[in-house]
Specification:
Elements lengths: L1 H21 L3 H6 L12 E3 L2 E4 L1 H9 L11 H5 L9 H4 L36 E5 L4 E6 L5 E7 L6 E7 L4 E6 L9 E6 L2
The structure holds calcium ion (CA) (2 copies).
């Protein structure tokens, strides 16, 4: 009798766990401006949860596991997670990320590059990530298809040298500076050309 009861208990626990794993945490959808439009698929490829899309991965970085704390922010709004040239904030109708959506804003999918505003928007300034701080110094940045980027460096903030040119592909590009180090410090910027 005891053994039978134990196996029932075990089955109940396993059942609960699998429900929790498939759950796409609806309270997070409520915290997104206009979150109800795409519901759980704002963050997941499937409307039932499971693997996260590019926006879902960005959200995952901002939230602690199981946390119900507010996570929508100016930082998350300024990023362009799916690389379609429109920031997450523009796509969700809250460009400045203050949590108050703009009335009548066009809402598009922040994790799907095929869904983007029909009206032209200002391209998002590329976010630079240092890939290797030692030699050869390298940095990574996200590009948007159709844009051209120039990597420039300076030692004095007076004159900038163009080191490389990249045609945007929609994915990340990595620039590595293989020049001999002539200065104690170099500063880099990526310029959006067109
Ligand atoms: Ca986007
Ligand atoms: Ca999009």
């Amino acid at each position: 009798m005891t053994a039978l009861r134990r196996s029932w208990l075990l089955a109940a626990v396993v059942g609960l766990l699998s429900v929790a794993a498939a759950d796409a945490r609806p309270w997070r959808v409520e915290q997104l401006p206009n979150g109800s439009k795409f519901s759980c698929s704002n963050c997941h490829f499937s409307p039932y949860g499971g693997p996260r899309n590019a926006f879902g991965l960005a959200v995952e970085k901002e939230v602690a596991r199981g946390s119900r704390a507010a996570f929508w922010s100016r930082v998350l709004a300024a990023k362009d997670s799916d690389g379609d040239g429109a920031s997450n904030g523009v796509e969700l109708g809250d460009p400045d990320g203050d949590g108050k959506p703009t009335a009548g804003a066009e809402v598009t999918h922040p994790g799907n590059s095929k869904s983007k505003p029909t009206k032209p928007v200002e391209p998002v300034a590329p976010e630079l990530v240092i890939e290797n701080p030692k030699f050869p110094f390298s940095l990574r940045f996200k590009t948007v298809k159709g844009h051209v980027y120039e990597v420039q460096s300076t030692a004095d903030f007076q004159s900038w040298t163009t080191l490389a040119k990249f045609n945007g592909t929609g994915s990340d590009e990595v620039f590595a500076d293989r020049r001999k180090a002539l200065y104690p410090r170099q500063y880099y910027r990526v310029k959006l050309k067109e």
